């Protein structure tokens, strides 16, 4: 995995840069010790590691602005980082760049129940928002499996989803406003409690931008009232293809569940051993369907879903009878990723999205790829919106295994694009999918995306080496920064 070569001049100035940053921030907010820096060498994609030049941990928007202003003036690269739970290498450090950690910006600034919104800092965990408003019967809808740890700022950067995104949307569908800081240190606000403003959708542009355009320092989120009733159904199938058929049939029937997830046999067995959620062990695939709304409606929808499943060969049907049982069904699903760690020394969690109608075919072809590459595969994914999370198991200590896992993952992502899907659903591109971007986008597409990057960050200081496959810089795309009305190198002829 090629990254931009480090600037030897910046590496030589390490002590000077660290001293300058320490002068900008309070004591304890700059990490320069070699052993302490190891904690920041990777995010959730641990196959790639790099110790940063330094780590800054600002506590306010003003301090974030001061750090970015310094980095802009001194041409120091910056990698924004939330909780480090990302799975695409988006927070992978650079040897000649600093980490801008946002973990100390962790306050819930305002809860406005009459307007059904809350203002929070980016270091607040996803789950903490729901916990803060649960007493009043409200919650924040996006719920990634890592919600106990992942930060809302990271959710914005990756446009995270979760098991309930099918009905209630991704992060972008649940945001009202953002405060962010540009690489020049300018603090800007977009959106808020008011209705949408005219003009460019800057908030939509920033959501999912993976730290390439600016650093988010405050988020206004939409709060939803908890549904009157929520019940989950466990449906077991003899094949993964049959479970995929059921998913497509439920949506085709006009039913939009609160959540709809599939786990295949390897995932079922290791998860049940880890959590004891009561999953059946004699099925090849398990479909979890949650219906919510008024009790009468939920009862009717459960009957319809059960019939659709039976028509497609479901051999197991169990409906939750209490809130504790419903939560237990989901506890197993949300613990699937750590559960896989009990049966494999290493694994890569992939992320691609496909049309729902192609689920049976893609599941079959992924099984064939598993045999072809000689690596085990477990499937856990958001079936309702076709967001796949194949878990490729390997042993990094075994020569060649990491490369085989990478090749297997690349084949899965190419398959997603081939059937009309996309490279990512919620994990982002980062470095994991960076070199596969031409599979989905042509040169014109990529140039347009780079043009947006250059408009916000002409010196390519924000998270360089991520997303764009040729390690392109704005200068490579023909962009030129004009300072004080004067072009650089005015002696050169221009055409």
TrEMBL record:
Pfam families tied to this protein: FAD-oxidase_C (PF02913), FAD_binding_4 (PF01565)
Keyword entries, A-Z: FAD, Flavoprotein, Oxidoreductase
Name of the protein described by the UniProt record: FAD-linked oxidase C-terminal domain-containing protein
InterPro entries, sorted: FAD-bd_oxidored_4_C (IPR004113), FAD-bd_PCMH (IPR016166), FAD-bd_PCMH-like_sf (IPR036318), FAD-bd_PCMH_sub2 (IPR016169), FAD-linked_Oxase-like_C (IPR016164), FAD-linked_OxidoTrans_Type4 (IPR051914), Oxid_FAD_bind_N (IPR006094), Vanillyl_alc_oxidase_C-sub2 (IPR016171)
Gene3D superfamilies, per the entry: 3.30.465.10, 3.30.70.2740, Vanillyl-alcohol Oxidase, Chain A, domain 4
Domain FAD-binding PCMH-type intervals: 48-226
The organism of origin for this protein: Lacibacterium aquatile
Names of the cofactor(s): FAD
PROSITE patterns per record: FAD_PCMH
Keyword presence, Cell division: no
């Amino acid at each position: 995995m090629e990254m931009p070569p480090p600037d030897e001049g910046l590496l030589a100035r390490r002590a000077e840069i660290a001293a300058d940053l320490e002068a900008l921030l309070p004591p304890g907010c700059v990490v320069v010790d070699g052993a302490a820096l190891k904690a920041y060498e990777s995010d959730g994609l641990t196959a790639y590691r790099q110790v940063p030049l330094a780590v800054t941990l600002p506590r306010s928007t003003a301090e974030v602005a001061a750090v970015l202003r310094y980095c802009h003036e001194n041409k120091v690269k910056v990698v924004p980082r939330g909780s480090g739970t990302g799975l695409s290498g988006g927070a992978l450090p650079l040897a000649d760049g600093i980490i801008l950690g946002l973990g100390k910006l962790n306050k819930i600034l305002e809860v406005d129940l009459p307007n059904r919104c809350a203002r929070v800092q980016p270091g607040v965990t996803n789950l903490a928002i729901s916990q803060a408003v649960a007493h009043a019967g409200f919650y924040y809808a996006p719920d990634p499996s890592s919600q106990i740890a992942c930060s809302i700022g990271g959710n914005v950067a990756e446009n995270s989803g979760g098991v309930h995104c099918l009905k209630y949307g991704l992060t972008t569908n649940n945001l009202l406003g953002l405060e962010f800081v540009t690489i020049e240190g300018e603090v800007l606000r977009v959106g808020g409690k008011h209705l949408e403003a005219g003009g460019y959708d800057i908030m939509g542009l920033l959501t999912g931008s993976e730290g390439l355009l600016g650093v988010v320092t405050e988020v206004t989120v939409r709060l939803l009232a908890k549904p009157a009733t929520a019940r989950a159904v466990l449906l077991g199938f003899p094949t993964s293809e049959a479970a995929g058929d059921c998913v497509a049939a439920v949506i085709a029937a006009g039913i939009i569940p609160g959540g709809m997830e599939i786990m295949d046999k390897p995932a079922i067995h290791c998860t049940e051993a880890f959590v004891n959620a009561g999953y059946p062990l004699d099925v090849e695939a398990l479909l979890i369907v949650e219906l919510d709304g008024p009790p009468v409606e939920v009862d009717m929808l459960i009957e319809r879903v059960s019939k659709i499943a039976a028509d497609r060969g479901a051999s197991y049907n169990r409906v939750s009878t209490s809130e504790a049982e419903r939560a237990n069904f989901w506890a197993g699903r949300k613990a699937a990723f750590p559960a896989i760690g009990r049966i494999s020394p290493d694994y890569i969690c992939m992320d691609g999205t496909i049309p729902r109608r192609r689920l049976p075919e893609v599941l079959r072809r992924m099984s064939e790829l598993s045999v072809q590459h000689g690596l085990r595969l477990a499937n856990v994914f958001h079936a309702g919106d076709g967001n796949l999370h194949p878990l490729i198991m390997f042993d990094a200590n075994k020569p060649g295994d990491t490369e085989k896992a990478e090749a297997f993952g690349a084949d899965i992502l190419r398959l997603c694009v081939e059937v009309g899907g996309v490279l990512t659903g919620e994990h982002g591109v980062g470095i994991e999918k960076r070199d596969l971007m031409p599979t989905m986008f042509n040169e014109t597409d990529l140039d347009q995306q780079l043009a947006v990057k250059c408009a916000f960050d002409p010196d390519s200081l924000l998270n360089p080496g991520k997303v764009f496959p040729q390690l392109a810089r704005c200068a490579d795309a023909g962009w030129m920064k004009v300072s004080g009305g004067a072009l650089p190198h005015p002696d050169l002829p221009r055409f």
